[in-house]
């Protein structure tokens, strides 16, 4: 049996190439292919339906407890007598109830301040620790209504932790809106000052101002 010569082996036709595969649809912005979005399941739909209801229950419970805390503090102040420590604790309790009430009502006057200085109220752990601390203050007042308020506050702390831990996006969105409202109000109230600052910057940095103007013009050409 003779072996084929190198020339014949070279001239032998090569196997046909595999058929080209159809390119997959590019993703948004030329990225990786996007998979079709799956339809929401029944559990997800049920979860979305329960979120607003749970949030409303939580806010109503917090506002109701604010009223109970304020009443507890006032009654303690009225009957404190020479109990200076009890009167001081009652003042703290009244202040904390006002903070919680303003936080839940989201009044425009105080919403910005609370969002900037009491950010721990927007997350599950911070809110729970705050409510437990207020409940401990209630137990320190040594009265029947204070014990009831403290017990309710402890239960409410667990409920707040559950709602915020399970649905954290709602509180994050709320904090973002409160902080954005502060920025909008500042810009609205300081339009003249901002315009003057822009003029001064352009006057002190003519090269940067010229480059910025050219870049802005090129985007609209």
Radius of gyration: 33 Å
**N-to-C SSE string, H for helix and E for strand:** HHHHHHHHH
End-to-end CA span: 77 Å
What portion of residues belong to β-strands?
under 5%
- Helical segment tally? 9
Task: Report the average pLDDT across residues.
Answer: 75
Unreliable stretches (pLDDT < 50, length at least 5) are: 6-11, 22-37
Strands, total number: 0
- What does the overall shape look like? elongated
Helix content: over 70%
- The structure class reads mainly alpha
The main pleated sheet reads as: none
Notes on the protein architecture:
It is a single chain. The chain is built from nine helices and no strands. The chain has 221 residues and is an all-alpha fold. It has a domain at 52-176. The longest helix is centred in the N-terminal third of the chain and has 37 residues, at 42-78. InterPro entries: Golgi_TVP15. It holds the Pfam family COPI_assoc.
Explain the layout of strands and helices.
Elements: H1 6-11, H2 42-78, H3 84-105, H4 108-117, H5 124-139, H6 144-166, H7 168-189, H8 191-204, H9 206-220
Helix pairs in contact: 2-3, 2-6, 4-7, 5-6, 6-7, 8-9
Pfam family, one: COPI_assoc
Keywords: Membrane, Transmembrane, Transmembrane helix
Region (Disordered): 1-34
Compact summary:
The protein is mostly helical. It has helices at 6-11, 42-78, 84-105, 108-117, 124-139, 144-166, 168-189, 191-204, 206-220. 17% of the residues are buried.
Top keywords for this entry?
about 75% helix, single chain, about 220 residues
């Amino acid at each position: 049996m003779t072996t084929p010569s190198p020339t014949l082996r070279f001239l032998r036709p090569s196997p046909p190439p595999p058929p080209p595969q159809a390119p997959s649809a590019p993703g948004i912005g030329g990225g990786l292919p996007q998979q079709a979005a799956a339809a929401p399941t029944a559990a997800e739909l049920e979860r979305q339906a329960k979120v607003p209801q749970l949030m409303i229950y939580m806010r109503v419970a917090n506002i109701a407890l604010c009223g109970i805390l304020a009443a507890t503090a006032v009654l303690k102040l009225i009957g404190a007598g020479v109990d200076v420590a009890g009167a001081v604790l009652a003042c703290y309790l009244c202040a904390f109830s006002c903070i919680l009430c303003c936080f839940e009502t989201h009044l425009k006057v105080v919403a910005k301040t609370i969002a900037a200085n009491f950010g721990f109220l927007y997350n599950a752990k911070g809110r729970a620790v705050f409510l437990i601390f207020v409940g401990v203050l209630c137990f320190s007042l040594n009265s029947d209504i204070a014990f009831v308020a403290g017990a309710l506050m402890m239960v409410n702390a667990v409920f707040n932790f559950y709602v915020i831990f399970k649905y954290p996006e709602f509180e994050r969105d709320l904090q973002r809106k409160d902080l954005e409202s502060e920025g909008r109000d500042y810009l609205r109230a300081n339009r003249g000052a901002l315009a003057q600052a822009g003029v001064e910057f352009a006057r002190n940095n003519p090269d940067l101002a010229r480059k910025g103007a050219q870049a802005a013009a090129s985007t609209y050409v």
